[in-house]
Amino acid sequence: MSVESRTLNAGVISLGWMGRLHSRSYLAVKHHFSDLPVNVVLHTAADPDEGGRRHATEALGFLHAVSDYKELLANPDIDVVSICSPNFLHHEIALAAIEAGKPFWIEKPMGRSATESKEIAQGANEAGLVTSVGFNYRHVPAIAEARRLVHAGEIGTITNVRVSFKADYSADPLGALTWRFKAELAGSGVLGDLMSHGFDLAQYIVGKIDSVTATNGIFIQQRPLPSAKAASHFSQGSDDAPKGEVENEDYTAVLGRFESGALGVFESSRVAVGPRAEYIVEVYGTRGSLRWNFHRLNELEFADTADGYRTIMSGPNFGDFSRFQPGAGTGMGFDNLKAIEAYLFLKSVVENKQYAPSVGDGWAAAEVADAALESAESGQWVDIKPVDVPTTYGQKL
Fold first, then answer.
1. Is the domain defined by 138-336+353-383 classed in CATH 3.40.50.10810?
2. C-alpha closest to that of 202 among 89, 321, 282, 144
């Protein structure tokens, strides 16, 4: 007996790269998760840029496009909302979505600070809304298998963890001084942009981080002021353009203690020359270890003997791999991870149960990032403030 499909009208706020990916991911759900009884309609896109609105209707197939996100949120026909705007608008738009009673999928960092993230998380929790936060690396099938192995005790008691998120997207000194480098607009630098993923993955695989000590560095002190059209961290300036000061960290090094007693080393850079998007997670236990690198996202290295690592290719028994590929050796990509995220968000909405990474998880990662910022200023160990709304990283398998 078939279950009647439910139609959900989606609204997407900000049609840059991530907004376009959210839009395509909504449409991908019916192809890869046909058992979910939902039909998504790309109803309304909101973007102040005319080019973004035109792309929404002409290329992505949205029924409507508006310039003001408030018009989108006020529309009673909109069932779910994606918030893909720059960091400095997340808090304002998320609170407006909560006020409108709209379940939302928001990109990370959820707020410019733990305080903003807390207000979003508590507001959504009080309103009874299911949510999703863009921790897409959770959805890598190899990460799903790593988490299973750790929780099953396959590598023994966890002793230490290493997380390294290094990228080169800001390595060029002529990269324009866009909003990402301004504290008022972005909040932290690489801590919020990259390391929030690392903190979330560590807690998702191993467990809660209790305290941290950290140091940060700004290695490119000044950058060319941006042109009127520069928006992303890939935007370029000219050598003869006037310069402005970079206000948030290019690099962070963090030591952490887990609730379990395990120790962690976390490192992240946005100006590393060499790594393109080298995101590494290593977990060591008393009987073995495992490691994963986004550069080779379909592989998991695993050791449980003195013979060293063996490489395991992701296959149908790893997470949601079988939804995309028939067998090991044919790999998945970044966009597939967002399709899984869209599925988990929509499943959460349809069943009114939290499956996707939640605003509680977004707040939890923000508290670790803020503690690292505080430690870098004081030179002291800082305890992580507790989160008083439900999270999903601690859910049992």
1. no
2. 282
